[in-house]
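Record 1 of the preview.
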Amino acid sequence: MTTTEQQDVAPYTAMEFLRAAPAGAGIVLPSLSVDTASPALRLVDLGRVRSDVAARLAQALRTGVRA
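->
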């Protein structure tokens, strides 16, 4: 997915992709949800996580952890 253009991705699909991606590194995003208050914007709410989970997620993104 490119970063310079907005693509037509359903928010529930994006949310499930985002839920599955860090699962390979044993990371759960417990507050991940779709923002239903703004359906036209197709927003995914990443929610809140503990600081240790945020650090593990950042490390997984940096190193490209794959399941």
